[in-house]
Design goal:
alpha+beta, Rossmann fold, OB fold (Dihydrolipoamide Acetyltransferase, E2P), 2 domains, 6-stranded mixed beta sheet, 5-stranded antiparallel beta sheet, 20 strands, 32% strand, elongated, disordered N terminus, binds adenosine-5'-diphosphate, binds magnesium ion
């Protein structure tokens, strides 16, 4: 984006939540939450609906009072301050623009009300940043949904908040526009250098945009880190299944060396690197991502450093262009998911085929959960309504619609 951003160059502030608890009558929405977000970062809070994301944002904005804990912005304790005293602005899913005002006046409105100098000049500058200055004299109804959301963003940024809170701001947009806006938002954040706290239940959105993702479940942060790190080394079953899919197994650790543990999975020894396992003894849960598995239709020869499971039977084959997803039922173990890149024409196995899978032992991971809490199969929903499965299905439907339109 070519817009001049000189006057947006004020840096963002860091945000710190210390032991934040929020209880509503008869319900604890947030449980002693600690969170530290460095200044100028793009931070995503990811979790299923109802896990406490909006409540967290409302606490930061000062719209709710915490039951316990402290909120610090730029090192200053703002826990007891009013919303307007905090250097914070929020962008919601509904744009809530004033319909009778022009785009320019919508963006300038807050500055005018606070009697700040040069509201019109600053509003133009903010509109340039979201590439809508050429539509400044239009009214909201004359803009598309995506454009209206960009106006809402300009309206928030024009106040130069040290901290911008975004509560599922792209949720009302269709899939394609959402993807485009994800990239734009990321560019804008890099340009203005403000701290963005972005809330979403869309794992792909969080991974695409954020420097750091915190996965939230039932009012708690389960794991936090760079997207690649969370994906490659999930620490809990929830993270393993909410962020992409996983094949999970349970069993006792039967031997261990300085480098690896061996887990007995229904009679088959499975090796996991020690550094990639949270637990090293007793009953444990381990896993591997579907794209790390190689599918065979004949028993593969045992090889050092590789785990092998099978034989099982292919129960489903679904072709999705760049890859094919196979479901394989292995007796005593359950259903495995394999993503195979389409390197050959057509599937390598069909429903009913006898199949084995193998993977490099270095690609496995060991979870921190108690194995009894682990869903039996990767397809078990992680939460009503927002399971990986239902998200995947929604994705597929959206994709099919897109393909039909094309
Ligand atoms: N004012 C309130 N009174 C009682 N319960 C609430 C209130 N606000 C939110 N909750 C509950 O707190 C939980 C978290 O809500 P919310 O933060 O909106 O979740 P999310 O934004 O992650 O979908 C939900 O179970 C919700 O019903
Ligand atoms: Mg919400």
């Amino acid at each position: 984006m070519a817009a001049s951003t000189a006057s947006f160059a004020e840096s963002g502030a860091d945000l710190e939540l210390v032991g934040i608890t929020k209880r509503f009558p008869g319900f604890t929405a947030i449980e002693s939450l600690d969170l530290s977000i460095p200044a100028g970062s793009f931070f995503a809070l990811l979790g299923p609906s109802g896990c406490g994301k909006t409540t967290t944002l409302r606490l930061v904005a000062g719209l709710e009072e915490p039951t316990a804990g402290q909120i610090l912005i730029g090192g200053k304790d703002v826990t007891d301050t009013k919303p307007f005293q905090r250097p914070v602005n929020t962008v919601f899913q509904s744009y809530a623009l004033f319909p009778h005002m022009t785009i320019l006046e919508n963006v300038a409105f807050g500055l005018r009300r606070r009697k700040l100098p040069d509201p019109v000049g600053k509003a133009h500058e903010a509109l340039k940043l979201v590439e809508l200055d050429h539509l400044a004299s239009r009214r909201p109804a004359q803009l598309s949904g995506g454009q209206q959301q960009r106006v809402a963003l300009a309206r928030a940024i024009v106040n130069r908040p040290a901290l911008l809170l975004l509560d599922e701001p792209l949720g009302a947009l269709d899939l394609k526009l959402r993807r485009q806006m994800q990239l734009e938002l990321k560019t804008i954040q890099t340009e203005v250098g403000l701290t963005f706290l972005h809330v979403t239940h869309d794992q792909e959105e969080a991974m695409t945009m954020a420097d750091t993702v915190a996965v939230m479940n039932k009012g708690k942060i389960e794991q936090m880190g760079a997207p690649e790190q969370l994906y490659e080394l999930p620490r809990t079953a929830f993270v393993a299944n909410f962020l992409g899919q996983s094949n999970l197994f349970t069993g006792p650790v039967v031997s261990s060396t300085a480098d690896a543990i061996t887990v007995d999975v229904a009679g088959v020894p499975i090796v996991v690197p020690r550094t990639r396992a949270q637990r090293h003894a007793g009953e444990v849960a381990i896993g591997v991502r579907p794209e790390k598995l190689t599918l065979f239709t004949e028993a593969p020869a045992p090889a050092a450093g590789r785990n092998i499971l099978g034989p099982g039977r292919v129960t489903d084959v679904s072709f999705s262009g760049v890859s094919t997803q196979y479901l394989i039922e292995v007796p005593g173990i359950g259903e495995l998911v394999v993503f195979a890149q389409n390197m050959v024409f057509g599937p390598v196995a069909t429903v009913g085929t006898e199949a084995w899978v193998s993977w490099n032992a270095d690609h496995g991971f060991g979870l921190d959960d108690d194995p009894v809490d682990i869903p039996r199969s990767v397809l078990s929903p992680v939460g009503p309504g927002d399971s990986t499965e239902s998200i995947a299905i929604q994705r597929r439907i959206a994709l099919e619609e897109e393909l039909e339109q094309a």
